[in-house]
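hey
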């Protein structure tokens, strides 16, 4: 079974394109939200997309039902139908990414809906608890999710994070502090960590 983790609000979730930020649903790590798990079909896919031109290269944003499903780095995934490109649906996403890359935002407030197994969701939620500008090792992350000694397995799950940057998988490093695998490539991982470190100076 595949699941999605989200938070319901009394007023519902706005579309990605805008809406009062107080209405925007989030998901956080265990114990830090009123999250609910819902079963969804493994074949349920994003229905519209756009490209955000970031300082680390173009990022393809995919969403369905007003919630982000994936962020793709250049060269990832198959071609998308031009008819499904809807720039207006991603105005708030672009605004918050602009703030992040300008060093003006440390936390995203967007409706996210990554799809994965319960084990994956637990790890991805834990990633959201790593503070801006901080890093943890794969071993430390494994301990946080109750899987001490399984750093390699946790690293595999981190590497499959469907919403990089928004779910900060770039903040996980090797036991000696060295940079290890990243879907967008190590230069992008270094650029993201350097951005956050510079902002905190």
């Amino acid at each position: 079974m595949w699941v999605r983790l989200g938070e319901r609000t009394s007023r519902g979730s706005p579309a990605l394109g805008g809406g009062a930020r107080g209405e925007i649903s989030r998901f956080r790590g265990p114990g830090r939200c009123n999250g609910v798990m819902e079963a969804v079909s493994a074949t349920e896919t994003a229905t519209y997309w756009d490209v955000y031109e970031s300082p680390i290269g173009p990022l393809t944003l995919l969403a369905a039902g007003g919630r982000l499903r994936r962020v793709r780095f250049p060269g990832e995934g198959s071609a998308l139908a031009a008819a499904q490109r809807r720039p207006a649906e991603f105005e708030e996403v672009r605004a918050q990414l602009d703030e992040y890359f300008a060093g003006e935002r440390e936390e995203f407030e967007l409706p996210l809906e990554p799809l994965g197994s319960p084990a994956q969701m637990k790890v991805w939620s834990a990633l959201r608890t790593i503070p801006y500008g901080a890093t943890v090792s794969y071993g430390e992350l494994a301990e946080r999710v109750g899987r001490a000694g399984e750093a390699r397995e946790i690293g595999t799950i981190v590497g499959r994070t469907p919403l990089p940057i928004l779910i900060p998988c770039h903040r996980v490093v090797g036991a000696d502090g060295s940079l290890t695998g990243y879907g967008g490539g190590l230069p992008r991982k270094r650029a993201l960590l350097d951005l956050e470190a510079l902002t905190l100076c």
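Residues 59 and 73 are 5 Å apart (CA to CA). The helical segments are 91-101, 118-127, 138-144, 151-159, 186-200.
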